[in-house]
Amino acid sequence: MFRCFFAVTLIACSLAAIVPDATETEEFKQWSGRIVGGHEATPGQFPYQASMRSAANAHFCGGSIINRRWVVCAAHCTNNRLLANTMVVVGAHHRVTGGTTHSVERIVNHPNFSQISLANDISMVRSATDFVESASVRFIQLEPNFIITGFPATSSGWGQTTNPGSAAENLQFLHVEVITNEECRSRLTLTNAARIGDTTICVSSPDGQGLCMGDSGGPLTYGGRLIGAVSWGVPCGTAAPDMFARISAVHGCLAATVPDATETEEFKQWSGRIVGGNTATPGQFPYQASMRNAANSHFCGGSLINRRWVVCASHCTVNRLLANTIIVVGAHHRVTGGITHPVERIVNHPNYSSITLANDVSLVRSATDFIESETVGFIQLEPNFIITGFPATSSGWGQTTNPGSAAEILQFLNVEVITNEECRSRLTLTNAARIGETTICVSSPNGQGLCMGDSGGPLTYGGRLIGAVSWGVPCGTAAPDMFGRISAVHAWLVSVIDV
Ligand SMILES: *[C@@H]1O[C@H](CO)[C@@H](O)[C@H](O)[C@H]1NC(C)=O
Ligand SMILES: *[C@@H]1O[C@H](CO)[C@@H](O)[C@H](O)[C@H]1NC(C)=O
């Protein structure tokens, strides 16, 4: 697993600096290097423990020795570090004296390390000389499995030297409990909870002590294997968990999370903008639904998939009252015409995230049957993963959050489905981090209509529904538009629809 990780990381290892950097926050700085409630280790108790030092022998981070040349560390420790100013000390008990010093010949930061979310906060440091095993120098195996919970896990370290007065002289350790990521999120602020992804593993001290055992880059072990590298935490005494990079996940996919996407200015500006679309003819999109409030005000689009169910976007229907939701089918105009149906059930995807907009698909059940006609028809769900394709078609009226710019008559746009990789490459790092398996991106091939937006509405390809309009970035930036990917939630859709 790590051989593969190296191969990838050697090619691309530097990340451009970006927006709100977690490592720049006061919270993060306060946490760094605090050690509370730890026990002093006996010499040789943690032979895999490494001390990362500057050329002046100042300890700056911990590390774990995994074989005769490599140390696992945290990317936030080694990002932008010069080889000439980095050494590895092994077999040490004291933070300043003793141990064997090795110079460093290579630093490989995880290519998907994010300073924003601290996802993939892992790095590898290669010694220029072999570590020689002894009573105080040994290697620790990597844990390939996803550890959900566990006790006791053990973390050790000296604390960072950014606050030298409080750093430990002798190696300290602490037994901690691995908690689920769900529990972890529930014990953090929303901003911090958003940083807990698949590449994070959280621990809690079961007795309420030592909650800020921190020695960045250092080991977290469980069952004799390395399961984490110390990543970040929040200030001591708040009963909050501490976060480690999850060893089993370092080769997994990007699971970055950032503050709630639906709250950003970008998202709000995008909502409901329709540019460069064409006016539909009546009945051209018989599966198009208009989701309205009780006052007949259109708030989102939808797609009719059978005589009772409409596919919509979770961000449209989350927290919506049934009594304030109606479905209008067979409409051409945004306000007049069509047939109105009351709603009897709204089912949001259980894994919808307003943070990442993953699984942004929902189902709305009409209380009465939709009657097929010239202007009312159903569209089939696409069960297959569409990688690329042209033309795909999206239609809608635009949201009424900005009524002046909403279309009176249904609009449509032919767009091109692009790969998720291309999509990421055309977005800012923050937005790229939101493109996952449950997203499908489109681009307008001629540079127009890039912000065709009518949340919840259809994206079709080859006569089937492949997406529900989810989100985008403001118009004119040549950025793609994002949809909830139907094939990714197909099994769920089928399990819910019952007609
Ligand atoms: C980094 O992210 C990209 C895009 O998600 C992915 O293809 C690649 O495998 C990731 N790299 C590693 C080493 O996980
Ligand atoms: C939601 O996520 C959980 C945990 O990953 C998974 O077990 C479950 O199948 C998901 N539910 C759906 C409907 O995809």
UniProtKB/TrEMBL annotation:
Q: Name one GO biological process term.
A: proteolysis
**Domain (Peptidase S1) ranges:** 35-276, 274-498
Where is the signal peptide, in residue numbers? 1-16
**Per the annotation, which location comes first and is thus the protein's main one?**
secreted
The record's subcellular locations are: Secreted, Extracellular space
Q: Which Gene3D superfamilies match?
A: Trypsin-like serine proteases
Highest taxon of the source? Answer: Eukaryota
UniProt-listed InterPro entries: Peptidase_S1, Peptidase_S1_PA, Peptidase_S1_PA_chymotrypsin, Peptidase_S1A, Trypsin_dom
Cellular component annotations (GO), alphabetically ordered: extracellular region
Could you give a GO molecular-function term held by this entry?
serine-type endopeptidase activity
Q: Which UniProt keywords apply?
A: Disulfide bond, Hydrolase, Protease, Serine protease, Signal
Which sequence ranges form a coiled-coil region, renumbered to this chain?
A: none
PANTHER family, alphabetically? Answer: AT26814P-RELATED, POLYSERASE-RELATED
The record's similarity note reads: Belongs to the peptidase S1 family. CLIP subfamily.
Official protein name in the record: Peptidase S1 domain-containing protein
Q: Which organism is it from?
A: Chironomus riparius
